[in-house]
From TrEMBL:
Domain of life of the source: Bacteria
Signal peptide: none
GO molecular function: oxidoreductase activity
Protein name in UniProt: Aldo/keto reductase
UniProt organism field: Gloeocapsopsis dulcis AAB1 = 1H9
Any Pfam family the entry gives: Aldo_ket_red
Ranges of residues in domain NADP-dependent oxidoreductase: 36-207
Length: 392
């Protein structure tokens, strides 16, 4: 395993972290007797395999149902000074409830303290305000730090880059969990801001939200050769020293194996990546046309500034992935979450696009005349049954 300094925490963080949202039994709390023995054995085997290969950062959340409780069966059996434990709590105006949830997390994990506590889901102005206002969630965490129950404070986010940068600018957080990977590099400005504040940078779900790379389409496999899409994406992310760790959402012990192939390649990234990146770019140009491939994103409005709350940038992005790389299954899953994802994946899909006048909101786009038609075609390609977030 390789390790990187996790910003001002000075923690030596493994370049892969063990995410805790895929091996748990349920997304809701249930009585202990309802948790099947084989599920618990699999979770414990997964944690032990992670630690065995040097992945000593174990990450979970109060919102991950039985994950914390099940981890509490195995974490106390590991040398405490050798593991890094993170949990996360949703922000709330009710700070008493926020603190009670933390105490429940600590009880579930059967630990005296957590190394990292993140405010979970600073996705919009409201959740940012709940966190940083006087007397808000951050102040509660600072008191927990004084009591020795929390070492470092961070935040996780699925929000737009400007909200992330605003949260970073407060200088109240030691690290950030965010999305950034090959198919979605929008948050680079936030990573740069985090580095200026010497914050740790943790990449959320690079293999799942980063393209469902554990079951890639053949076209993507061919474009990423000789690497697998998972190893390519890992290498792309970790070739940037500003990134410190990638989450591996393991559901079983062997789920680490493909990721571990990345380690031997890290020092060779400068020679391995350029031809793959060039092939991916050329494939997009060949499929989408050079003008569209290079400028489709220019001048697009936010969903909140668009009639019907339609999330035009996300819809066009998903349509591009489906056409350029055959990532149709991934694009359909994400597209049909629009309208059901709340602040975690905001905005509406293009089901009603023919009833909306987009002329004004598209005035700054070089493709304004074509986008309404393209949005309609995207809905025809990707539309289907509504999808909900995993936690729902």
């Amino acid at each position: 395993m390789q390790y990187r300094r996790f910003g001002r925490t000075h923690i030596q963080m493994p370049v892969f972290s063990c995410g805790g949202m895929r091996y748990q039994f349920k997304w809701q709390d249930v009585p202990a007797w309802q948790i099947p023995r084989n599920n618990q054995k699999n979770l414990e085997a997964t944690i032990r395999r992670a630690v065995e290969v040097g992945i000593n950062h174990i990450e979970t959340a109060r919102g991950y149902g039985t994950s914390e409780y099940q981890l509490g069966k195995v974490l106390p059996t590991l040398p405490r000074e050798q593991i890094i434990v993170q949990t996360k709590l949703n922000p709330s105006d009710n700070t008493r409830e926020f603190q009670q949830k933390f105490e429940q997390s600590l009880k579930n994990l059967r630990l005296d303290y957590v190394d990292l506590l993140a405010i979970h889901g600073i996705n919009d102005p409201e959740s940012l305000q709940q966190s940083v206002r006087p007397g808000g969630c951050v102040e509660i965490v600072q008191k927990l730090q004084a009591q020795g129950k929390v070492r470092f404070l961070g935040f996780s986010t699925h929000g737009p880059t400007d909200i992330i940068v605003q949260a970073i600018a407060t200088n109240l957080f030691d690290y950030v969990n965010l999305h950034w990977y090959y198919i979605n590099q929008n948050n680079w400005a936030a990573i740069a801001a985090a580095n200026r504040h010497d914050m740790g940078v943790f990449i959320i779900s690079p293999s799942d939200k980063g393209g469902m790379l554990y079951k890639p389409p053949q076209k993507l496999v061919d474009l990423c050769a000789p690497l697998s899409p998972i190893v390519f994406n890992n290498l792309f992310c970790l070739s940037h020293s500003q990134v410190h760790t990638l989450s591996v959402g393991a559901a079983r012990p062997q789920d680490f194996d493909e990721h571990l192939k990345t380690l031997a390649l890290l020092d060779l990234a400068d020679e391995i990546l350029p031809p793959i990146l060039a092939r991916l770019e050329q494939a997009a140009i060949a499929s989408l046309g050079e003008s569209w491939a290079k400028t489709w994103h220019v001048g697009l409005p936010k969903h909140s500034d668009t009639p019907g709350d339609v999330n035009i940038p996300v819809i066009l992005w998903l349509r591009n992935l489906a056409i350029a790389y055959d990532m149709i299954e991934y694009a359909k899953v994400r597209y049909n979450l629009l309208g059901n994802g709340g602040s975690w994946f905001p905005g509406a899909n293009a089901a009603n696009i023919n009833q909306l006048n987009l002329q004004h909101c598209l005035k700054n786009s070089p493709h304004a005349t074509n986008i309404p038609r393209i949005l309609h075609e995207a809905h025809q390609l990707l539309g289907g049954a509504a999808v909900k977030r995993l936690s729902q």
